[in-house]
Amino acid sequence: MIHFEHPQILWLLLLIPLFAGIWTWLLFRNKKRLEQFADRGMFGRLIPDASRWRPSTKFALIMLGAAFLILALANPQEGSKMVKGERIGSDIAICLDISNSMMAEDIQPNRLERSKRIINNLLNSLGSDRISLVVFAGSSYVQMPLTNDYSAVKLFLDQVDCSLISAQGTAIGDAIEKGMQTFGYGDPDREWVKNQGRAIILISDGENFEDDAEAAARKAASEGISVCTIGMGLTEGTPIPEYRGRQRVGYKRDNNGNTVTTHLDEATLTSIAHAGKGIYVRANNINSGINEIVRLIEGLEKDHYGEAVFSEYESRYQYPLVASLVCLLAELLIFERRNKKINIDRILRVRKNQ
């Protein structure tokens, strides 16, 4: 089965029909301009060496060559054989805030959906690390236990929304403790071994009203678990939308009828990361902070998880690359105007008359 090492490069293929449309429009415009000076029947006398098919053929070859080049850059790969290898990695618990304030739209499309995209991008950047997923609001629970099946994590992540927990609030400390439990901390049936190969990634707007999150982060750090925080939202206040089904019906109001606003509490999230000996990064519409988090994960100690079977892929970029070079070379060998010495149309007519 063929797959691409860099599938995001394939988006460049959308430029091919765009350029084709522009070229067709320019060709039509030039023809209209010529018709203002002479009838179509006079074109052959005014421009005797002009060819109708050569420019179109040259352009088609350029576009085809560009398409093959994009495919080569995306590096198509084919799985040739299955090999055994040792699985090593770190344990990562992702704690996702699903309180109502995460529906605020200061980050598009909203804080929660943006958080889910960040988690997906993080999963795509990891290797053989094991992942668990904890969701929290006024309370928390484990949505996905520790696993190296990223597809399952993404499947469970798709089902996450603010209705999963009825108790509203933001119990960050409880979420950190749940994250520790996914590593086996506090389990009487498992022996707890302290090491530096574990991390908790907390994604929230930082408005903590329920417990002592810093104490929980310090406790995690004392057990060798780094606590990192990703801040979602902007520091300016923004209203919290309310929905009936999928339709927005207004904004949340307090008992006095005033619109309730929410803002990113960077001070709290920074303090939690400091207490947990991790890092704080701020996410917005441009930056997600994934690179900083990935670098921290790569620096963690790695545990051995036993053997695993991997598919060894072989790159096949050579074939589209050769096809691209052939198309571009053919384009160079075709002249836009007819060659008086080598005229294919004349040769064909002579042979036909014979």
SSE layout:
Layout: E1 2-4, H1 15-35, H2 43-46, H3 54-73, E2 76-89, E3 91-97, H4 111-125, E4 130-136, E5 140-147, H5 150-158, H6 172-182, E6 198-204, H7 213-222, E7 225-232, E8 238-239, E9 241-244, E10 247-251, E11 261-262, H8 266-275, E12 280-283, H9 290-298, E13 303-315, H10 318-333, H11 344-353
Parallel strand pairs: 3-4, 3-6, 6-7, 7-12
Antiparallel strand pairs: 1-2, 2-13, 4-5, 8-11, 9-10
What shape does the CA trace take?
Answer: flat
Number of helices: 11
CATH topology of the largest domain: Rossmann fold
Number of domains: 2
CATH class of the largest domain: Alpha Beta
How many runs of DSSP E, i.e. beta strands? Answer: 13
Could you tell me the mean pLDDT? 84
Query: How much helix is in the residues?
Result: 25-40%
Which architecture of the largest domain would the CATH scheme give at its second level?
3-Layer(aba) Sandwich
Radius of gyration: 30 Å
Brief summary:
The chain is 38% helix and 24% strand.
Please give a structural write-up:
With 354 residues, this protein is of the alpha/beta class. The protein folds into 2 domains: 2-75 and 317-353, no CATH class; 85-308, von Willebrand factor, type A domain (Rossmann fold). Helices cover 38% and strands 24% of the residues. It has 11 helices and 13 strands. The protein has a 6-stranded mixed beta sheet, with helices on both faces. A 3-stranded antiparallel beta sheet has the order 1-2-13, with helices on one face. Strand 9 and strand 10 (247-251) form a beta hairpin. Helix 6 (172-182) packs parallel to helix 7.
